[in-house]
Amino acid sequence: MASEEQPAPASGKREVHCADALEWLAGQGVLTGCSLITSMPDVSEFPSYTLEQWKEWFVRTAGLVLSRCPDDGVTIFYQTDIKKDGTWVDKGYLVQKAAEQLGHALLWHKVVCRAPAGQTTFGRPAYSHLLCFSRGIRSDLGRSSPDVLPQAGEVTWTRGMGVEACLTACRYVLSHTPTRTIVDPFCGHGTVLAVANDLGLDAVGVELSRKRARKARALRMPLGDSEPETSPEDDAD
């Protein structure tokens, strides 16, 4: 007897707020029914800040993001380290510092390759961090997944989160939590939102730039396709 073809999951709903992420988050309580997936801004986006001022901002902001996650949800950060004034800044450490202050446990820490292993890169490292935290969820070691992603996947802009990394994060939310809405408070062009919708999850994004907010509302990810319907660009307003 031929097996019946399974229907594709329905696309989720999406809303994008053109707003300052910190102000938006400060105006929210715990986001019931939600998990958060985001990539927070680099020091290069704060020209008036010293490195130490940006580090303080980064830890404080990571804490604000984490504080809005319900106990049955997860918060996943995608961050790429930087080299600044001859020093190495480990963003994974900064995010974990914020999580420890708020009592959120690290469920997993994956390395996402931005360049092939063994290749030398300059300015930015050849990998990114993908870190997952929760206050109430705990990992089932029998359902582990690879700790190294061989590629980040296609990006819609130079600061964006790769599609493969987005898929890994959203699929974890689907399979390990009861939450069915993804919130990205620094959504950029909206790759996280598009991937979440493609998997049947609802999505909420926040983006300060009107131009990027428009892109985030329009970005689509055809089911079964790993490439977003746009091209990479850096479109600072």
Radius of gyration: 17 Å
Please identify the structural class as seen in this structure: alpha/beta
Q: What is the overall number of helices?
A: 6
Strand order of the largest sheet: 1-10-9-2-3-7-6-8
Rounded average pLDDT: 89
Distance between the termini: 58 Å
Structure explained in plain terms:
The chain is of the alpha/beta class and 237 residues long. It has a domain at 36-179: Vaccinia Virus protein VP39 (Rossmann fold), CATH 3.40.50.150. It has six helices and ten strands, in the order βαβαβββαβββαβαβα. 38% of the residues are buried.
How are the secondary structure elements laid out?
Layout (H helix, E strand, L loop, with lengths): L13 E5 L2 H6 L7 E5 L12 H17 L7 E5 L2 E3 L2 E3 L1 H12 L2 E9 L13 E8 L13 E2 L13 H14 L4 E4 L6 H8 L3 E6 L2 H9 L19
Parallel strand pairs: 1-10, 2-3, 2-9, 6-8, 9-10
Antiparallel strand pairs: 3-7, 4-5, 6-7
Output the keywords.
Rossmann fold, globular, 6 helices, eight-stranded mixed beta sheet, alpha/beta, 237 residues, disordered N terminus
Task: Give a nutshell description of this structure.
The protein is of the alpha/beta class and 237 residues long.
